[in-house]
Amino acid sequence: MKTAKYGLWTALTAVGLLTIFPAAAEEAALTPQDFYQGAQLSTDSAAPFYRLPLPDRVYFETARSDLRDVRVFNHTGQAVTFALSPVSSAKTERYEQSLKVFPLSVTSTGAKDRGEEGKVVMKSADGVEVSLYPGDDRREMGTTYLLKADDSQHAREGDGFNQLVLDWQQAPANWQAKVSVYGSRDLKNWRPRASNAPLMDLLSGNDRLTLNHVDIDNDYSSRNDLYWLLVVNADGQGKAPAISGAKAISIVEHSSVATLEVPFAVESITASEAVYQLKRPQPLSTLSVVPAQSNTVLPVNVEYRTKAGGEWRSLTNAVIYRLESADGYRISDPFALNKSLVQSVRVKAVNGSWGEEPPVVKGERERVDVIFNAQGNPPYLLTWGSNIAYNASIELGSMIPAAAMPPSGVEGLDTAEAGPTMTLGGESRLTAESAAEASARWQTWLLWGLLIAGVAGLGLITLKLAREAMGKRSD
Q: Which residues are the signal sequence here (predicted)?
């Protein structure tokens, strides 16, 4: 009976301890000393928000590859609100392409023919015939032109055009007109691309006002147009001159995310196999594998693993090359990884070897800016490298109101600069346990101890019962 009571008391005590541990494991607010390293930030101007380009060294010395252990503290050691924003670059390119102009004359309409209501037939001087159905709300067909891309220029098929720019001989009198544009790929099926766009050429004294461009719809269906039909209708203020030239304007906007080069170190090597290693896993967007020797083409098998000692995963079987030419050299394209975690890479030559030097392996990961709110007083401190830090960054749109964002976006924010690296809590912070992790570990040991004590208690009870039974039999 005493043994049973002792076992019950032990169990209740253990349950009480398990209840106490979570309460003791509540996370305390992090301080700069909870981080491996840091750098003081210089802010020359007074502003509510600052943009800090994250220094290269931070990417390689954080405890977490997703940068969740990055923080910004003010002068009193309080963490400030911040966001991690990808660094993107926008580029706008303008292309011009000359168009050949073919005047058309209206030869007939299908208004009297059954099933051909609204059809207009036009023909060029060299016999090219075009049929168009402008619709019920069409105006009287004015002067018409067929435009075609100049065959001597390289066509940018698939980009589409944003504008048509027209040219004409200056007329002696002022004039205004409306122009409609239709696009086609086969000279049979025509779709409207612009409707009643204004054209004008006005002269007042020494001043001249010319409107000679037409904005056209650059949607998905218009990007493959090869022919354009212009219908010009004068507004009655003078006859519009003949169109003598035309060119298409294509405006293409490119946006790309800035990346950081991540070099790998060769860990082991043979004549046909090499293993490359990073100090810590990195989320790579691309991986480049290029022969070290010039004019080399080599089929290879590429594998990677997400952590040291993990399973190898196949990335690709490909042919890598480095070829020299008079214009420089060409190398094989990098392989896409889509932010996969990578710490090790293994490259094997297929049916060959790479000679004295193994291929050069480099990765790329996306760069970020730290956008932080200037809470409290400067100087501010950037810290990184803490295994116990949780993700504290917020969405950029939630931190900066739309009215407070500069017209140029985050690029227009005041810039902060990071100073030299200083050691804070030391390298041990990279592997430190949080209070919750320590509590979970102690709870696991306590549960194991409870189970062992329970088994021992049951064994003692069984042994006691067996002895009592044997004593009764002997009596």
A: 1-25
Order the strands of the 368-373 sheet from edge to edge.
82-86, 368-373, 49-53, 414-415
CA dihedral 207, 200, 238, 122 (to 10 degrees): 150
Pair 179, 262: CB distance under 8 Å: no
For residue 416, give every residue at least 6 positions away whose Cβ sits within 8 Å of its Cβ, in sequence order, or none: 41, 42, 43, 50, 51, 52, 372, 380
| Structure-token pair, residue 225 | 């147009």
Domains of the chain: 32-87+368-430 (no CATH), 94-110+117-255 (2.60.120), 259-366 (2.60.120.260)
Q: Which two tokens stand for residue 318?
A: 């490909």
Q: From CA 362, how far away is CA 289, in angstroms rounded? A: 7
Check if the beta carbon of residue 295 is closer than 8 Å to that of residue 322. yes
Give the distance, in angstroms, between the CA of residue 294 and the centroid of all CA atoms in the same chain: 33
Contact 104, 230 (CB under 8 A): no
Instruction: Tell me the C-alpha distance between 321 and 323, whole Å.
Output: 6
